[in-house]
Write a structure and sequence with these properties.
alpha/beta, asparaginase, binds aspartic acid, hydrolase, Asparaginase/glutaminase_AS2, 2 domains, Rossmann fold, four-stranded parallel β-sheet, 28% helix
Length: 345
């Protein structure tokens, strides 16, 4: 059901979706909302009312920064009572990071926040942007017969799939089908009808208050292992000035070399209070450090499991937890608990 008295706030941050080809020069230029309405006349036909907010200037999402996440949280918090849902138009490159960050920063969210974008600009004939935009608006406004939102969480909608935001990864730079949620089921599949997979969508037990969070600590590094990695590369990363946490991208089910120098460096860093989270380089599956000896040694060195977390989610969750002043031990403990459905235990 999509009643006509619903309203959605469309927030345009930038990215390919909002670009229009200049007829004379052929160059891609950012649009404003009036231009968008001209290129997507379908917007007028939508039976919900749509207001817009535009980032000025719009940003390529490769330039995304926590400051812009704070701005999004502030806009949503300030207008929360006025709208049934929110659609964020965002570049695809870092959309999974933004979706993950927002899922932690918007505690107690009980309305849809749908991020979408496109691979081809909205002004291009074959664009995937119109479809993504129109369906996202429909999902953001969708309610059950009691007037409760169908999807009260931060999601990415892209090419027929609605996904939990903090479970997504951009995995294709060319196909329309750019995002995947490898470790969590699709929340809705869009064809002629929108088929919601209710059993995996977040449910709200009682009226909850939105609690916005703005504190993030970005003193984090991502260290991706590869055969032959040098001791000085690992040592230099783990001794970065001010470093508070590392997302260690390991092999398979969370395995890493057993070399003495490697385990010693990890142990020393953990003892100094650096939180090291083990996330697998594999797209799908989970970290199980107890499974092989090569993983077990990491456990002994004080490394904590990232379970089936994406790197995007682990990085932003660490920023969130460290930003809130938790001690290393408290952060380690909270990394093992889902805050917004980002890991499966
Ligand atoms: N570089 C663009 C961005 O992320 C790509 C896109 O929108 O798809 O903003």
């Amino acid at each position: 059901m999509n009643p006509s008295n619903t309203s959605v706030l469309l927030i345009y941050t930038g990215g390919t979706i909002g670009m229009i080809e200049n007829a004379e020069t052929g160059a891609l230029e950012n649009f404003n909302f009036e231009q968008l309405q001209k290129h997507v006349p379908e917007l007028q036909k939508s039976n919900c009312s749509i207001d817009s907010y535009q980032f000025d200037p719009p940003m390529d999402s490769s330039d995304m920064e926590p400051e812009a996440w704070r701005k999004l949280v502030r806009i949503i918090y300030d207008t929360y009572e006025r709208y049934n849902g929110f659609v964020i138009l965002h570049g695809t490159d870092t959309m999974a990071f933004t979706a993950s960050a927002l899922s932690f920063m918007l505690e107690g969210l009980s309305k849809p926040v749908i991020l979408t974008g496109s691979q081809l600009p909205i002004g291009v004939l074959r664009t995937d942007g119109k479809e993504n935009l129109m369906t996202s608006i429909e999902i953001a406004a969708a309610q059950d017969k009691h007037g409760n939102p169908l999807v009260p969480e931060v999601c990415i909608f892209f090419e027929n799939h609605l996904m939990r935001g903090n479970r997504t990864t951009k995995m294709n730079a060319e196909n329309f089908n750019a995002f995947r949620s490898f470790n969590y089921p699709i929340l809705a599949e869009v064809g002629i009808h929108i088929k919601y997979n209710y059993s995996v969508i977040h449910t709200i037990q009682e009226k909850q208050e939105l609690k916005p969070h703005y504190l993030l600590d970005t003193n984090i590094a991502v260290l991706k292992l590869f055969p032959g990695i040098h001791e000085n590369v690992v040592a230099a990363t783990l001794t970065i000035d001010g470093l508070r946490a590392v997302v260690l991208e390991t092999y398979g089910s969370g395995n890493a070399p057993r070399k003495q120098w490697f385990l010693r460096l990890l142990r020393e860093a953990s003892t100094r209070g650096i939180v090291i989270v083990n996330v697998t380089q594999c797209s799908a599956g989970t970290v199980e450090m107890e499974r092989y000896e090569t993983g077990y040694h990491l456990l002994e060195s004080g490394i904590v499991s990232g379970y089936d977390s994406t790197t995007e989610s682990a990085v932003t969750k660490l920023m969130f937890l460290l930003g809130h002043g938790y001690s290393p031990e408290e952060v380690r403990e909270r990394m093992a608990r889902p805050l917004a459905g980002e890991i499966t235990l």
